[in-house]
Amino acid sequence: MSENVDLTGASWSKSSYSGNGGQCVEVAFDFQGLMPVRDSKDPQGPALVFPSEAWKSFVSAVRSGEFGDL
C-alpha cells in the first residue's frame, strides 16, 4: 500500500494460539478496510498494512493448509 496509516492509537491483538516461543504476530482490527500486522517481539518496529480482503484470503489459505505446515 502506498498510503501512510497512523497506527499510534492501534489496539493490537495476539492470537490465542500464540505460545511463549516468541514467534507471534499481532493485528489491529480497528482500521476499516485495512489490517495492520506487526511482529510481537518488536512492537516499536515497523508494521505491514494489508487490505482487509487480502488478509482474509491469506488467513483462509493458511487454515486450509495451502502453505503446508507452518
- Can you tell me the overall shape? globular
| Ends apart, CA distance between termini | 26 Å
Mean pLDDT: 88
Helices and strands, in order, run as EEEEH
Task: Determine the number of helices (DSSP H or I, runs of at least 4 residues).
Answer: 1
Radius of gyration: 13 Å
Number of strands: 4
What profile does the largest beta sheet have? 4 strands, antiparallel
Beta-strand level of the residues, as a percent range? 25-35%
Strand ordering within the main sheet: 1-2-3-4
Unreliable spans are: none
Helix content: 10-25%
Structural class: alpha+beta
Protein name: DUF397 domain-containing protein
Pfam families: DUF397
Biased composition (Polar residues): 1-18
Region (Disordered): 1-20
Structure commentary:
The protein contains 1 helix and 4 strands, in the order ββββα. It is of the alpha+beta class. It has a domain of 43 residues. A hairpin with a 5-residue loop joins strand 2 and strand 3. The model has no long low-confidence stretch (mean pLDDT 88).
What labels describe this entry?
alpha+beta, four-stranded antiparallel beta sheet, about 70 residues, globular
List strands and helices in order, with pairings.
Blueprint: E1 12-14, E2 25-28, E3 34-39, E4 47-51, H1 52-63
Antiparallel strand pairs: 1-2, 2-3, 3-4
